[in-house]
# Entry
Amino acid sequence: MTWLTVLSSSLLLLCIRDSGSLFLPDSKELRQLLSRYEKEIDRNSTGNTAGNRTRRAIRWSDREEIIQLHNKLRGGVYPTASNMEYMVWDDDLERSATHWSEACIWDHGPQDLLMSIGQNLAVHWGRYRSPAFHVQAWYDEVKDYTFPYPHECNPWCPDRCTGPMCTHYTQLVWATTSRVGCAVHVCPRMDVWGEIWENAVYLVCNYSPKGNWIGEAPYQHGRPCSQCPPSYGGGCRNNLCYKDSWRSETEDMNEVEKPQVPLLPRTTAKPALPKPKPSTPKKPASKLRDKCKGATCNRYVCPANCINKKGKVWGTLYYDVQSSICRAAIHHGATDNNGGLVDVTRMDKLPFFVKATKNETTADCYTTVAEICPFKKPYSHCPRIFCPANCQSQPSYWSPVIGNNIYSDSSSICKAAIHAGVIKADGGFVDVLPLDKRKSYIGTFKNGIQSESHLVSAFLYG
# Structure
């Protein structure tokens, strides 16, 4: 039997009475406070010889799993976020989380840090649970949370949590929280709400800058990356504000090696070199494990139109060896559907592969053109949209359809596509072309959907 429980940090009031001090996010005082835990861990480390690393409180694979899942979930929030920042790992936060997890106290702490950091906790015993299991459980509180739109925040945003707790979710997706550090510790005996759990696995994740401010929404709604802080220089990655200068430690450790040219033996006569065989394009279904047997694989020539083939792709950034080489290259952005040259590097097997839709946009039944492709001249096609199944049955209040053949940009893309006859009720790909707004839109009943009449800007399905 497995027991699981989670705990979220209490909200920080905007007005604090009888407080001796207050740390601002990313302040010098916060860094000095975090460094204290680094010194304490160093003092408690024994048997370390020169050149040996202190054992970390979390495995490298778990660390990568946590950070990738955080960014995947943050980039996929609904409604979409215009200022969601890319999250990176912070060693100081990891050290402070290590210090607290080793205390085996089922409560938030230490108190002197909670004024400046956010904190999510989880504990379980029994069969193995990866840290990502708990991170996903924190995010799943979204089912009980209703996002407060700007017109509802007058001046403070309402707290709309219909479940027992939503603050794990809001801290995880707090837009300005850009760093996380976690630790896992096995507590021999831990008091969890009055019950003693033996060999309890305790997960502590610390966040900075702190989120969960009362009266504020976790992020600003709008087109992804349209309101990123100036420090990001306009960079955007998977719907997250991203600095192009960032390179993860994993990327640094797994650069593609340049193949060395073997030296020819010294002879008086020139050796007859074999004629190189003409290279043939690889089929889209070629798998990494078929050809990739060394640390660095050869260069591949991908043909055109691989995106329409049936080869499967597992992973994001890093891919399983059963993936189609050329379709994985398109997914990664190394090439496009016109084909091209691709270099592949073999890595150690990862414990998991993150699923994501890239280089084409996935919409839900409520997504509108105004959200992903605002109208502007000159006209240009929006990104290709993939619509899920069963949008036809969604209520008009959440997914309206306005117009006939030419639709208002406040219409549900996928539901309007069914109305226009471009796709069936089981979903599919849709191309959208923005047009000038019309003075009027006439509603009709087509393909099982009743559209409305209205006045706004427009788009056309092609």
User: Anything to note?
Assistant: The first strand starts at residue 3 and ends at 8. Residues 28-44 form the longest helix (17 residues). Residues 299-343 form one domain.
